[in-house]
């Protein structure tokens, strides 16, 4: 309303009746824009934050939700605390950012943590960009796998997180399978260490079984079946690389501190693809 009043006043002052009409129109546009901005402020809770502020919110929300996932089964394990610390180091957080991340992680562990409200803010601050939200979800899945397996309570929380970010239960379960395979793939297969190798297999037999296991995990990392042909493998690879390309994620608003994590994820996809190409013999 204030825009219309001022528009009419100054329009009449400088242009008479015609100026008043023009001023009324401009004032109406001003009031309309003002209402939209105010609505955006109250809806997001970020107060028109700039890009840097939104990235800080995204980063802190990631650690808060990570703490909530870690607490889901009742007690936070040393592996989960270690993972959070490792991720802080991988992100090269400065001392102030580390304190904020640690505080966010502790807040996430509280019984009254407002998970749904935080996830809504994440969706808004990320502009609803699918790739950023998927990256956020995968961070939480990684946190759940910190100790090597996902507890049923953690899985329930992950389903709430996926739903809050706009992903279906089926999409979450697929990402869980892919992350589980990635966890084994990074460990060099699913057959344990050297002691198991010496007691249970000859060197050649273990190596053959281990390679078969790694190949199976490589297919799961790409989210495809072992029956997939070369065309399907390449299509899955390109889709995942497009979704996880660090530069593209940065352009869409990923905090620069998360660049190393995005690079490691894309390298994981690349390694799985390279293994499949090598074994299957296609270019």
TrEMBL record:
Residues 217-283 form the J domain. Its main location: membrane. Keywords: Cell inner membrane, Cell membrane, Chaperone, Membrane, Transmembrane, Transmembrane helix. One of its GO terms (cellular component) is plasma membrane. PROSITE patterns: DNAJ_2. SMART domains: DnaJ. The chain crosses the membrane at residues 6-26. SUPFAM superfamilies: Chaperone J-domain (SSF46565). It is found in: Cell inner membrane. Residues 29-283 are cytoplasmic. It is a single-pass type III membrane protein. GO terms for molecular function: protein-folding chaperone binding. The keyword Hydrolase does not apply. InterPro entries: DjlA (IPR023749), DjlA_DnaK_co-chaperone (IPR050817), DjlA_N (IPR007791), DnaJ_domain (IPR001623), J_dom_sf (IPR036869), TerB-like (IPR029024). The keyword Methyltransferase does not apply. The transmembrane domain is a dimerization domain. Regulatory DnaK co-chaperone. Direct interaction between DnaK and DjlA is needed for the induction of the wcaABCDE operon, involved in the synthesis of a colanic acid polysaccharide capsule, possibly through activation of the RcsB/RcsC phosphotransfer signaling pathway. The colanic acid capsule may help the bacterium survive conditions outside the host. Homodimer. This is Co-chaperone protein DjlA.
């Amino acid at each position: 309303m204030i825009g219309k009043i001022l528009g009419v006043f100054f329009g009449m002052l400088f242009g008479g009746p015609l100026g008043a009409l023009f001023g009324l129109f401009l004032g109406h546009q001003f009031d309309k824009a003002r209402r939209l901005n105010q609505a955006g402020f109250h809806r997001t809770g970020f107060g028109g934050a700039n890009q840097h502020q939104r990235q800080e919110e995204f980063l802190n929300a990631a650690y808060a939700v990570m703490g909530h996932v870690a607490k889901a089964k009742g007690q936070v394990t040393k592996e989960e605390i270690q993972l959070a610390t490792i991720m802080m180091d991988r992100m090269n957080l400065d001392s102030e950012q580390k304190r904020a991340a640690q505080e966010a992680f502790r807040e996430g562990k509280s019984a009254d943590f407002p998970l749904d409200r935080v996830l809504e803010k994440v969706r808004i601050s990320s502009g609803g960009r699918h790739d950023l939200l998927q990256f956020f979800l995968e961070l939480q899945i990684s946190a759940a796998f910190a100790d090597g397996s996902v507890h049923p309570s953690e899985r329930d929380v992950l389903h709430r997180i996926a739903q809050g970010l706009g992903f279906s239960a089926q999409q979450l379960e697929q990402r869980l399978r892919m992350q589980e395979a990635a966890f084994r793939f990074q460990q060099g297969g699913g057959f344990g260490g050297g002691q198991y190798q010496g007691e249970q297999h000859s060197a050649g037999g273990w190596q053959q079984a281990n390679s078969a296991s790694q190949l199976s995990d490589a297919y799961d990392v790409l989210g495809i079946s072992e029956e997939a042909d070369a065309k399907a493998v390449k299509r899955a690879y390109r889709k995942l690389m497009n979704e996880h390309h660090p530069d593209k994620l940065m352009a869409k608003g990923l905090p620069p501190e998360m660049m190393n994590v995005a690079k490691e994820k894309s390298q994981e996809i690349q390694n799985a693809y390279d293994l499949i190409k090598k074994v299957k013999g296609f270019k």
